[in-house]
What does this fold into?
Amino acid sequence: MANITVFLCRCFGEIDNAIDFDLLRKELSKDTSVSSVSIVDSLCLEADIEKAASQIKETKADRVLIAACPTLSRGNLPVDGLIKEGIERHKIDLVDIREGCAWIHGNDPEGAVKKAKDLINMGLAALQHKEASKDMRVSVHPDALIIGAGPAGLAAATSLAKTGFKVNILERASAPGGMLRLISQLYPTGEDAADKLNPYIDEVENNHLITFYPQSKISSIEGCIGNFTVQFSSQGEDNSIQSGIIIIATGAKIFFPTGLYRYGEIRNVITQMEIERQFLKGSFDAKKPVFIQCAGARDKERPYCSTICCPASLKNAMRLAGENPGSEVFILHRGIMTPGNVLEKYYRDALSMGIQFICFEEEKPPMIMGNDRVEHVEVYDAVNGITRKIETDLVVLSTPLVPNDDSVRLAQMLGIEVDRYGFFSESYPMHPLETKMDGVFICGSARWPVASDQAILQGRAAAMKAVSYLRQREIAASTLSRVPGPKSGHARVVPDSCTGCGNCVAACPFEACHLEKLEDRHISKVDMMRCKACGNCVSVCPNGSMQIPEHNYRMVGEMIKRAF
It folds into this structure.
């Protein structure tokens, strides 16, 4: 039987107005596993924790049960305080008798006491059967790896270098800059794209902490947070590097709308990126340009909005109108997307310049007319209910960004996932730049289409997340949790009873389970650095060989038995 000390916290009178603590103490004194019961005014103050720790040591208790407020309030303070005093985490349990009991059952004191007894009895059962998971640590290799050298990757690399860490950048192109190298001006400021990009490129070229590998192709990635090993080729030469963290900043690519709006069939039907190329060469002569939005986007194949297309059309439409006095500029759309007050003003500036907007329906797209080159566009005006014929000498198609071809392959190497379109948007609501693989971060348009300024911000943010790991000499598996605080444990296999069925391998969302050969059979093995103690493997194990020591089946069974 366990030797358990119980602390009943009054919370300065917040709890005992609904719960009879004397009755609880009397009931608990009958339990042979309880060595002492103390009613205290509070447990969240530093002096309270020191007194509690002294009492635990004096009574030589090997388990501690705290009945107080939950961890989401202040319950974590006494638990963390006792851990600092040298008491192991698995020997402490906390039950909520304030928010979950006294407060919501204030009008039913009898029911509140009954519920408190059940909760405390379940806590006692848990403590009697709790075990401790083994922990492991890995040494942190203090170098960072950035995959991709667009604005997000460059921002991440330079931010990391400024904090003193060595950075390796792998880029599939021959030079850094990504898609921003193909842009003339940025919206909504009109800033020259080169002016924004060049300081980052100069830093990469001149900072001795940054090593740039052009024309790179990754062949394999192995390891875990703190120590990834990456095999790759750069300019035809094979290389291998080690890295403590990995930041994915591979960006996206342009969708070419072959088969849409007669693109590639007649002259002067081009994409936004092609007009950008002309702007890089100088001014562009077009007296009657027509922009068509959502060419290949917001349809059955790609139902998403690419976010940058509408502002890009506004930018280029206003530029054409400004450089060609007397021109007539049209934007044909299914809804202009300009979120935020800055882009909304940008849209209103376009209206004030005389740019004309016509809304069409997806079922009635514009028709491009002409033989050798575009002559006019016919479009059904959904607002006025009429068909318009617009003479034009240029049609510019706004196409979405789509994932790069190697996204799925890279995701498989890293043990993460892409969404149904191929973007690395598999992340967590409260951790949008993180993946399920600790130490692997995503930023920029690799995650989801974004403008360059947003990509830069995400790159910097990913770098700061990475720094929190790179600054550690060692990383313990127990600290890699998906919820606030340490992990609740690690899955553990009993080799003698494991049949190697593979259920755990299939069920684990973090790819922490794998099968290994043992003599003439296979058994499951758990990678503690990947395990998040989610319990999926436990739920599908047919014979109980897979358990989480801190939440093992004997403990859960006894808790249920005591409650019912």
Remarks:
- The two ends are 21 Å apart (CA to CA).
